Amino acid sequence: MTDAELMALIRTRYGAQLAAACHPSSLPEAFLAAVVANESGGNPAAARPEPAVFTRLVNVAAGHQALFSCPGIRKPLSATDLLAYASPGELQPSQIVAEYQGPPFMPYPLGTGTEPLPGSPMPGAPARGLQWGLKRLGELATSWGLTQIMGWHLIEMAGYAGFRWTVGDLADAGKNLLCAVALFTYFGEHYQLDPVREFEQLLRCWNTGTPDGATFDPMYVQNGLARMAAYSGLALAAPTPGAQPPAK
């Protein structure tokens, strides 16, 4: 699929949502559409686990590392932050029964780790509690949705300009785009970037956390700018699909 075809597909599917997400900001729809193309190709269900990030989060939660921090992060995450997210406290009672309650951990003979001791109960509450916590930390170590937002942003950005989303929201196209605009707004303020001019720097922020970072894909910025131009050309040719006409 060519860039022109990809951007036309993204515009047909998400043009109205891109326009709605960008409307309160100065960020051009074409720029956000290019990020969608770069990150997910327009797949709202895209989810990419990051094992190295997961390991770091587990180390912080376990107290082996003081903080989880990345370039550009608004608020480094502590064990307290991560354990609050990973706890089952927000579950409904029926979910707690299914996810967390049960008989005690199954003890194993010292040094084997393979066979339970005679008469031992099956794994239960502690095992399920651990499984739940690791699942939740795994959510934070995964990039989600159209713009591939890392789950840990949900914690570090909480409260910023009304920022309040969940992992479930990131799989929703419209909410994912709104969340992305909030993050780009933060990057613009943090690094004093112009959202209608410094597109290369904003693309680097999205991929690396800093406006001068070296992207993992050396073509990331070039592809993004080309796709932005392709989307802008489509927008000049016809109104955004589903968008409301300007008031007379």
Q: Concise description?
A:
This protein has 11 helices and 3 strands. With 248 residues, the chain is mainly α.
Number of domains: 2
> Care to count the β-strands?
3
CATH level 1 name of the largest domain: Mainly Alpha
Gap from first CA to last CA: 39 Å
Any idea what the shape is?
A: globular
Mean pLDDT: 84
Low-confidence stretches: 99-112, 120-124, 244-248
Rg (CA only): 22 Å
Strand content: under 5%
SSE class = mainly alpha
Which sequence of strands runs across the widest sheet? 1-2-3
Note down, in words, how this protein is organized.
It is a single chain. The chain has 248 residues and is mainly α. It has two domains: 3-86 and 141-237, Lysozyme, CATH 1.10.530.10; 87-136, no CATH class. The protein has eleven helices and three strands, in the order ααβααααββααααα. The chain has a three-stranded antiparallel β-sheet. Strand 2 and strand 3 form a beta hairpin. The radius of gyration is 22 Å and the shape is globular.
